[in-house]
Amino acid sequence: MSHPIAIITGAASGIGLAVTKSLIAKGWRVVMADVDGKRGKEIAAELGQKVLFYTTDVSSYEQQAKLFKAAFDWGENRLDFFAANAGIADTEFLYDAKEHFDVNGVLQPLDLRTINVDLIAVIQGIWLFKHYARRNKIPGGKVVITSSAAGLYAMETNPLYTTAKHGLVGLARGLGPIFAKENIHVNAICPAFVPTALCPEEMLDRFPKEHITPMSTVIKVYDKLISDSSIYGQTVELSLDQLYFRTKPDYPNESQRWLGEDSAAFWEEAYKEPK
Ligand SMILES: NC(=O)c1ccc[n+]([C@@H]2O[C@H](COP(=O)([O-])OP(=O)(O)OC[C@H]3O[C@@H](n4cnc5c(N)ncnc54)[C@H](O)[C@@H]3O)[C@@H](O)[C@H]2O)c1
To answer: At what angle do helices 37-47 and 14-25 cross, to 10 degrees?
Structure first.
């Protein structure tokens, strides 16, 4: 039987690179995607034949679509796993005093790259993954979305990152049950602070050691979500060496419980066709 195939975005650094190394050690073949082509190619050359590096800016649908096609071809019509992992912090602050104007004095729009990379690209990636997962010899596959603790709580310095990461939690919860019917298992992970290049370099050494979540916890959750097909639509918070499966918020009354759990037949009829 051929080796299972994964696509990992943001694979040239941090979490994506650690997951890449962990999977190839377990016999996987990994298509590493990253916007940093130079670093990615150097690392891929060191990792050898088990990886294929593909320079990809995930915020370009065209580039991500080419990545998926290349991966499916490289895997000889096989794609088992997608780690939607690439992410960036806020590139402009919504609360910033600095503003830019065009020649007519009209305020320029806010830079929304964070939303494009951290949220929209993930949605498009899952759209692409579904297409190929349905064409696997045994249709189906697994997706792990890298949200963040900022997807559960607020990171006040980074409101756009917080918005995108909350959106990813909603995406996993909303898609999980319906995709599971066709053997595609989607979950989101919410790591606390893991020391990577995401944190400005000069601040890394100053982060309190007792609040660091090690990469081993990240690898542990990937192993669990890849091996256990009974888990889907879940949000897993990672803190220190622990995994916490976070359930939806409590319903305040019976009416909201009905809306959340028993109203599916109503909505299925209402949304037979997209509006
Ligand atoms: N490190 C943490 O503490 C932490 C905590 C919670 C969530 N996360 C999330 O984990 C994920 C991985 O981050 P990391 O901590 O490993 O950071 P990292 O900066 O080490 O790695 C991110 C990688 O994504 C790549 N990337 C950025 N924009 C891209 C784009 N448009 N297309 C393709 N690749 C792109 C970067 O080049 C980099 O290699 C991110 O989604 C991040 O938000 C990290």
So the answer is: 20
Q: Of 7, 13, 67, 111, which is best to mutate to test ligand 1, by the most ligand atoms within 8 angstroms of its C-beta?
A: 13
Q: Is 196 in the pocket of ligand 1 (CB under 6 A)?
A: yes
Structure tokens at 163: 């918005």
Q: Which two tokens stand for residue 28?
A: 């996987």
Cα separation, 151 vs 224, in Å, equals 20
Residue type, 140: G
Query: What residues contact residue 69 under an 8 Å CB cut-off, 6+ apart?
Result: none
Q: Is 222 in the active site?
A: no
CA distance from start to end of the chain? 43
- Closest to 248 measured CA to CA, from 233, 258, 231: 233
Mutate which of 9, 15, 113 for ligand 1? The one with the most ligand atoms within 8 Å of its CB, which is 15
CA distance 182 to 1: 22
Rounded percentage of the chain residues whose pLDDT exceeds 90: 88
165 flagged as catalytic: yes
Domains of the chain: 5-270 (3.40.50.720)
Ligand 1 in contact with 90 (CB < 6 A)?
Answer: no
Residue 98 pLDDT greater than 70, yes or no? yes
| pLDDT at residue 48 is higher than 90 | yes
Q: How confident is the model at residue 200 (pLDDT cuts 50, 70, 90)?
A: confident
